[in-house]
Amino acid sequence: MRSRAQVWDIFLFLFFILAVLFGASYFFVYKFGGIPIVRTNRGFGPAERSVLPRGTFPFPPRQPQQIERAPISPGCYQLALVTLPLRGSWWGEAPAGPLLVLFAPTPVQAASARTHKPQKKRTLVPILETTITDPTTTAVTLETNRLTVRFDGQNPRDPKDRLFYETFLFPLERQWLKTYSKSRSFNRLSHGYYTFFVRTRNQKGFADPSPAFFNLDVKISDAYGQVNFSASSQTELNLSSSGRNPIRVSGWRISSLSSTSNIPPAVRFVDSYFSNTAQEIILEPGQRLFLHAGDSPLGIDFRTNRCFGFLPNRSRIGFSSSCRSFSPDELFAIRRRWPVSDRCLSIIQAHACSAATDRERQSVERDYTCQRFLQNELTYRGCFERHHNDPDFLGNDWHVYVTTGQFRFSRYDIISLFDQNGLLVARQRIF
Question: Of 242, 267, 283, 403, whose CB is crowded by the most CB atoms within 10 A?
């Protein structure tokens, strides 16, 4: 029994020592704020509510506790709401309540936070819009080689944004062309299909992702701009070639508001019997074509040559050329072959490209050698036999004739010239 009592005493002594240590540690922790303690709000005391006169209780007024705030290092903190036992809850003085706890970051999180770069300020991507103001349709048919396109662009998010434009004509161009103008002109378009694109771009490099466009069908001939024509009267039309290459005009169509006619083939070399076959008319640079309404004085459509001056009805043909006179060597050859008089030689020298007049023939009627020369040599047949192989034998003018009812125009008319494929060559207004 005695030993059991001693053990019990030792147990009580140890329990007392542990209780003292526990009480002292709890007092120091509570006194110096070692652990978070949330005190319940018990409201104002009786003296603070002026129920009892001030000074009834000798306790000093409660001072707000100064909390020392430690500097917060950069990192990822977590804010959590937890429930912990409050001060005195073990003795039943106050129930458990919520507690707001801020958890510090781990060393790995703090290191990553120090190396983390802040994100740049996000900018809104501009919405650029592009419109074509002229032409207003997406499919355009053009009968000229000139075109002017007008366009406009805007940035609805920034009306003051500085804009410029980029254009692209496919398949004529291979890359975007920059321009600050709101229009673009083309002056040398050829026959074919094109697609015109335009987009708006600003100084920051943003561009309209959906460019405006339209399709273009240019219906003009390859000879467009290379043929000029004018009307000398209501029944005559003059065409001239101003290009660098030969142009085949046979089969072309001439239309006015009241008539339509085609350009027929013509005889290139008109022999002395007028029996040559008609060929296609090919206008060389500098040549002209005269289209007449009526019948041909020769019965054919033809190209002039240097011997046309010997034809008796040359006034009806309208032939004109720079005649080349006989050279001294040619006159010596004529004198040796034809022993003519000086009077006859003067007539021959004056009529290198035309026939002698009746009065001149009468002046040498007794000179039979001269009469034979004038009859055999100073004629179209004789001129053709002598000069048809000369390089300058052919002239620069073509003359074709059509029925009067098929070719006629009046004042304030529009004359259009189309090639064999129906493509426009030229168009002109007649006043």
Answer: 283
Structure tokens given for 176: 């975007």
Lowest-confidence region among 54-68, 228-242, 364-378: 54-68
Q: Element (H or E) spanning 402, and its range?
A: strand 394-402
Dihedral of the CA atoms 277, 280, 282, 283 (nearest 10)?
A: 80
Give the torsion sign (CA, 58, 59, 61, 63).
positive
Q: What mean pLDDT is predicted for residues 22-51?
A: 56
- CA dist 126 → 130, 178, 354 (Å): 13, 19, 82
Residue count of the chain: 431
Instruction: Give the integer Cα–Cα distance in Å for 112 and 286.
Output: 86
Report pLDDT digits (tens) over 165-209: 999 999 999 899 999 999 999 998 999 999 999 999 999 889 999
Among the listed residues 291, 275, 283, the one whose alpha carbon sits nearest the alpha carbon of residue 237: 291
Domains and CATH numbers, the chain: 129-218 (2.60.40.10), 227-430 (2.60.40.1260)
User: Over the Cα atoms of the chain, what is R_g?
Assistant: 57
> CA 184, CA 188: separation in Å to the nearest integer?
13
Of 289, 281, 291, the closest CA to residue 246 belongs to 281
Compute the distance between CA of residue 62 and CA of residue 227 in angstroms, rounded to an integer.
113
